[in-house]
Amino acid sequence: MVQTNSEAIITAPADRSYFLRGSSSADNFKEKWLAAVSDLNTASQQGLAERFDSTVGANTVLMPFGGKFQKTPTQGMVAKLPVLNGETTTASIMTHGFVPELSDWSPYHGAQYAVLLSVAKLVALGGRREDAYLTLQEYFERLNSKESWGKPVSALLGAYKAQKELEIGAIGGKDSMSGTFMDLTVPPTLVSFAVGTAHVDNIVSQDLKDVDHRLVILRCTLACTMTLLIGIDSKKTVTSYKNKLKKVVFTPRM
């Protein structure tokens, strides 16, 4: 086995926080709104998704797009486990998390939120945080300087912090450090995939089920979201959480 040592320098993010980029006022609301709907990350990916057959094996629990008109994106993949004989009520769940712009601003925050998003989606689909496992896919530029080494180091520290807080471990993954071609490099990339199982009766789709259903927008810090995820599985916590939602009026903000 060949072992080498390298030094890494982790640079601080840019002065303007990524988390303030969506702030808007009455003066620039139209400009911000047009920029948001023009972003490729906001655009519909249905055409791309439908190039893959999601019905192979006849075990699909949730289609990639749900609702009356099949236009509501599903948070992740949910399908029954294949069995040789009989019928199963156990479904497998797989979700992912990655925000390229956030990772480009700060690999540490990008990896932390990649883990958080993948687990949050799994819980939203009906899975349990305690039963989830992670696999991390990493892709970085060619490592030829202390600053370039700092990017994967920073990302791994961010992912490790999120795993410690959520009490979930990554049991697999793959990395590549060859994301450079001439003067082009990939953004620091750490994609988190969360996997788990759940009973099919506990699976929740993202489409609205009926008229007059309430929509709630939550503004929550990373620590707050992790606290909710850690305690969301107990019936007492869920009941308390629902009661709080009924008493609080949330104001949508861009």
Structural class: alpha+beta
What is the straight-line distance between the termini? 52 Å
Secondary structure tally, helices: 7
Radius of gyration equals: 20 Å
Helix and strand run: HHEEEEEHHEHEEEEHH
Pick out the low-confidence regions. 231-254
Strand content: 15-25%
Described by the principal axes of the CA atoms, the overall outline is: globular
Q: Reading side by side through the largest sheet, how are the strands ordered?
A: 1-4-5-10-6-7
* Portion in helices: 25-40%
SS elements, strand count? 10
The largest sheet, given as strand count, sense and whether it forms a barrel, is:
6 strands, mixed
Q: Mean pLDDT score, rounded? A: 82
List keywords for this structure.
254 residues; alpha+beta; 6-stranded mixed β-sheet; two-stranded antiparallel sheet; 7 helices; 10 strands; globular
Q: What is the element layout, followed by pairings?
A:
Elements: H1 29-38, H2 46-49, E1 60-62, E2 65-66, E3 72-73, E4 77-80, E5 90-97, H3 100-105, H4 107-124, E6 133-139, H5 146-166, E7 170-176, E8 180-181, E9 184-185, E10 189-199, H6 222-231, H7 235-247
Parallel strand pairs: 6-7
Antiparallel strand pairs: 1-4, 2-3, 4-5, 5-10, 6-10, 8-9
Describe the structure.
Helix content is 32%, strand content 19%. With 254 residues, the protein is of the alpha+beta class. α4 runs parallel beside α5 and α4 packs parallel to α6. The strands form three sheets. The protein has a six-stranded mixed beta sheet with strand order 1-4-5-10-6-7. Strands 2-3 form a two-stranded antiparallel sheet. The C terminus is likely disordered. It contains seven helices and ten strands.
